Amino acid sequence: MSDPNEVRGTAGDIARALDDAGIPNILWGYAALGLVGQVKVSNDIDFVVSDELVQKATDILIVKGYELCTSRKCPWGDERKRARALAAAHFDIVPDKKNLGPVQIFPKSHILWWLKKIPAGDPSPDDEDLLLTNDPRLPPKLKTRSASSPIERDLYGNYTEEVGPSGPWEKIYPMKILKPESFTEALILLYCRDYHNPNIGDGLQLGYDKYWKRLLLPMGEVKVDPKAIVPKTLRPEFREAWANFNLVEQPYFWEFFHDDLCAKLKKQNKLPSFPGIFRLYQ
Ligand SMILES: [Zn+2]
User: What predicted TM-score, i.e. pTM, was given to this entire model?
Assistant: First the structure.
């Protein structure tokens, strides 16, 4: 298990290199989740860049000493073994930090198709969807459980389990991320798009909907510790689905929380079909 600060610092180094090369980017996935919902222990470092800059972003990391992985047998690159979204390019490990990785580059059209062009530099203060990882408007840090007895302290030291948000990352190079509301909406949209997608028949071990569900759960507004909840007001079209998602007692199968939303989005042509597998290096 790696130190979350190491993951964050490394993400900051990558974002700085991309920014310096003129590649607007958004930190995404598990690493970003802690800022807007709940910290999840993971070594993944995921970035979204516009499709036409995926190649350039990959080249920048190669120049920085990252070793590109194109092996079809790699668990990160094999859609049959993979229980996560497949990146356009990935690096198994971070140079000199062998416990960190993979680092993955995703094309915007696959993940955030609905989002406007990713701006270069800082998002404007009134940006609807984006803010920086050091923005004081982010949910404050929450530590809900510390070693509470001498026995626990002997066993774990002064350990604290983070079950809520990480708080703004003040000492790390600021990166663009989605706001809690937009991040939640992005995951709902991905879940709707990929729910029971036909690629399951092509040998995907898990549908991507399962992966989006794993990311969506930490955003939920029902938690054992209510202090760990980040309350969100989503855009009107998402509110009913989100309320269904957060029902304490699910009257029917949880998976159907999005049914009505999905039908409405399809009718309005706002829901693209599953984009399929895209690898920069086939
Ligand atoms: Zn690999």
Answer: 0.89
